[in-house]
Batch of 4 targets.
Target 1
Amino acid sequence: MAPNLLLLDLGMAVSFATIVIPDLLNAPGSLSFTDNEASWFGSLSFLTQPFGALLSGPLVDYVGRKRATFLVNIPHVIAWILMYFAWNVPTLFIGNALLGIGTGIMEAPINSYVGEISEPSVRGALCTVTQLFLSIGIFAMYFLGSVVTWRVAAIICISIPFTSMLLVVIGAVPDTPVWLLSQGREKDALKSLCYLRGWTTADNVKEEFDQLVVYSKSLDGCVICWKEKREESQCDHYEMNVFKRFFTKFNIVMLCKETLRPLTLTMLYFTFVVMSGLTPVKPNMPFGALLSGPLVDYVGRKRATFLVNIPHVIAWILMYFAWNVPTLFIGNALLGIGTGIMEAPINSYVGEISEPSVRGALCTVTQLFLSIGIFAMYFLGSVVTWRVAAIICISIPFTSMLLVVIGAVPDTPVWLLSQGREKDALKSLCYLRGWTTADNVKEEFDQLVVYSKSLDGCVICWKEKREESQCDHYEMNVFKRFFTKFNIVMLCKETLRPLTLTMLYFTFVVMSGLTPVKPNMVNVCSAFGMADDSKNIVVMVGVITLIASVVVIGIIKSVGKRKLGISSMFGSAVCCTVLSIYAQANLADTVSSYDPKTFPEEKSVVPLIFFYLLTIFTGFNVSWVILGEVFPFRSRASAQGTGAAWNYVVMFIGSKTFIDLETHFRLAGAFATYAAFAYLGSIYLYFFMPETEGKSLQEIESYYEGRLRIFADDWFINIFKKKK
């Protein structure tokens, strides 16, 4: 009964938004949804459901089906209470997010419990009953919405999870026999089976129970030993790295045909069922960035530089010929995917072809061209229509593809060596060093050959320190081999350390002030009362960003990336602090960048100066430069794609949350928040960002392996270093 109550509650939760939105959309009073907020409220629970669903499996396996049936009610109890007492829109959003998480967490307990307690002859009928209770829950919520307010409906709904928890407490929900046997509780398992079969005796369930015992014993012990057909007494897998052990077990349990076949069936079935009603198209930059790493590793840096232009070519054509709004949306989505896919080829290529002495400057040149592109689009927007701008833009990817075709873009020597193409690698290095001779690059090429040979062969054999001649890993299941390689390459400290650095660096840079306000920059400048026309200020921001990129190219070699990164972050923190103090002292509480009627009439040069300074310091950040050089070759492209994807995710979060920060804490609070991020970023970079300027890629990789130390060597940081 308790699992059915969970489904009743689940049905009421997924349909709750339907009765709330009509009452609150543009309603009078403080508790009101805008159109955007209503759309978020209606979809938020679906966004958070996957997180709960992924948590539900480990929860059920750890605490058992019975306890899980109790615990999964807690998010919904909290959510219904928040809904009833909701005093503002964020409270409703938190409540709806908890409903989504709780709904997701319910999945495994319900399905596991019903599947494991049922006899085969009635399992289909019992599983169908669960869908019946889900439908009843949806109907009940629609009915409540027609007779009571949404607040009363929320407080009525809370009775469902409480009743479910009560049934568990009083013992009306026994744990499943299979799980009890897996915990070695044979007597409790027999007692549970007797209860579930109608309070019968042990003799009546003896045959079924014996089958369960045999099945349970086949699941005992170390799953890795079972897979390797080793004796349990020889097991040494508990000495493995916790992540490696987890993913090895994951490969064995989740990537076997007994799991993959039914998982494929259910996922495709769900896809066809859901998509038969509505097909949403919503691609984004992070997805393209995640694809870029595997693409670069598979086809090489040169071919990838050609292929990544294709989405943009199609996008610009669609933009020019756009005949309706959906066409524009598809074109913009392709621009996002193409932008994401470009990340790994750009960063990998520049990082691998550059000499250590000029790598920093060359990586900064990429940001200069990015700034030129932004400025060029602003300029085109002021002199031609957007359709003409789109057709002009198509010349850029075509030019890039042409340069690849005519051979002006050689592949990187490191990648060519990894493919066994030593002659091509030497030819490429000579070309990249200024059409020089092989003798002039012999020393550098020999170092690359040694480095490349250390990367040759089967990565699994390399990790296990086995001879290549004994390799049998190509006979492994393709998914298992992929995840085993993933563990070795992506979850090693040489990858995880720099990946943590770049992801946190991106987080602090994005959340340090300028990026979140860009979509609404014109109004933000007006809301501060800056002493110039807001549109002129936006143009100047583009010019200053361009100038900052040029300055960085000139000073990065002498100053170093570490000092530049820390200084720019701390400078952003100071600027945000001053803007926050100015807003608190000089702007009325009613001022909002989203309401032009509240803009101050008095103008001041103070916020203008510090906004320009914030632009300068943001332009001095070297996050993208670091991304291009800190990863080892084996994981470079994929890790760079992951880091770039994270940057876009944080940009989305920052842009999306600015309106909420300003609404609840005004401009002063919003910029105080950004200042806090920047101060934290300054501290983090001081302690954890190494100086990579002038270092070879091999030296940087060795540092992250722990063999070299290239941290700044000042007296303060030495206090925190481990004594050798």
Note: The chain has 34 helices and no strands.
Target 2
Amino acid sequence: MDKLGHTPIAIKDKTMKSHWLLLTTAALFLSACSSDDLEEELETINFGSDYYKNDYYLLNATDYELDYHIANTQLNGDERDVADDDYYLATLAKDAQQYAITHESNANRKLSLYVAARNVFGPVAQKKVEVEYDHAYHVVAWQNAAQINISLIEQQQDNQDNAYALRIFAAEPIQVSIKGHAFSLGAGELSAFVHGSDCDSDVKIAQKNVDLCTISFNRSYLLVANQQGLTALYTEQ
């Protein structure tokens, strides 16, 4: 009791209410600030059969050193700013080996792929794609003149004894000959598997022999080519 004989219960109650109000306001503020982060986390929560966790192999078949980014679209289907540093994955130099990553997404949600030359004035490429559950993909950055592009190609194999298997991806319109059988590909087109056994004469691009003597029989490969011939060669995992 105070000097007037009053018990300060009301004052204590007001103090508790003030503390409660401050805590509630802070919680609401934090919740609002983190709503975007929460939405992004929800996107990759395991929703049973709707949960995708795939392997991606980053490939650089250009003349540039490239930064690679991947972002899931938002739950409402809108794209995020995939160029943001939050979605950076790796940097690959010209002629670098393929770089493997695992990325999580949900069914019926698209991915945004993005590559940018490290040179501040260099070119960029962006593409929105759909993927399937439990598949492995090539993320291929390729070049047509000074322009870079990006393509998503599902990994496949067609191994045969005493032969190598190739799929040919054209960065420019090219003429191809496999054991004398000729066909053409437009820029950005991918051939079906073809097979050869002679490493230096079975495959011709733009009427020039392609040296494949570093590859092996009973293996499958993705070959990227332009009008000058082979630009990059990658193993199908």
Note: Helices lie at 9-33, 35-43.
Target 3
Amino acid sequence: LSTAEQFFYIDPPTFFIIQDAEGLVIEKQLAWVDMLEAVIWLLILMSIEIMVRLQDRNVAGGRSIRTLELVKVFLYVLLWGFAAYWIYRGHYMFAWDEFVWIAGFVVIGMNMAEWREEINQNETEANQS
């Protein structure tokens, strides 16, 4: 038990959690990580949407696609960092959930890469004709 003299209620009335100042700091850190994680996922979805729209216009390469790919890699690295943070805090299920989502989106990215290859192949065949 804590020897602190000041305690805080967290999330009443849904839960009845009482913790000291140190626990409150950890709770705020976890909330920030959770919020940043949600924002990063939205940015990843936005980059995928932009890539889909570009590929719908038969844009399968160039600076815009490379930039979006690099941005996605950077965002995935941040998510892996958050997964490591969840493990550090002992939230193994959150880390596992992060892994499953990242793996799913990597598969989506692989599917988009195949689509880009198909667009490039069609352009090559059209240029040869």
Note: The chain has one domain: 28-128.
Target 4
Amino acid sequence: MNSIKCPECGLVNFAEAEECKRCHLKFHPSEPAIETLSDADQPLFEAGVSDSTNPEPLVPDPQEAASPAPLPEYFDAEPETLNAPMVLFAVYLFLSTVVLVYQMKGYVDPRDKLYISNFEPLFYLLWLIHILGVFGSILLIILLLRRSHSFLRWVRVYLIGSFAYFGIQLTTGLTWRSTLLEKLQNNKDVEPLLDAMYWTSILSVIGFLVAFIWFRYFTTSNRVKNTFIN
């Protein structure tokens, strides 16, 4: 509580008093002798106890709020090893490369028994498609063995391209075979070509189904996601 001590007689008066009650000394308004309570008279508070009516707000660390703690399973994550289906897919890519290279020769060699000069522009287009297939297969084998994360993206492109290739090969093969059967009946010279078109159509159906199985495996398997993380 504030008070005024008289400089003349030493009497302690209230802070609102304009003169001393003992000697009636007028207090100067601009220089009041204000006496504050000493440290000993101050109320004591227990150390470490805060005012419960006015708690101090907790300010979160902005770095902790911006970067949440990672889940335990991602600490020091190591890629899984290649399992049996992945090794089998590598063998499938290798065999596809061999078949594509073998077929490329028949598209540009006039001496081949399946070569038809009237379809030469189409054969050259198929030859270019086979080149892309060969390079795509080799690229996927490299990415597969390295367990690269980009394999998951390129294998989808490769398999979707396989869907289109087998679908076109199936429809065109059946169409050409039926057309040749109508125009060239009982012609022994075209029998090898007709047989090749028949088996090509069958293999196209099998290839389409196999590509669909691989597509489902590489897009839904959790083991695949944990393997190709580099």
Note: Residues 45-50, 70-75 have pLDDT under 50 and may be disordered.
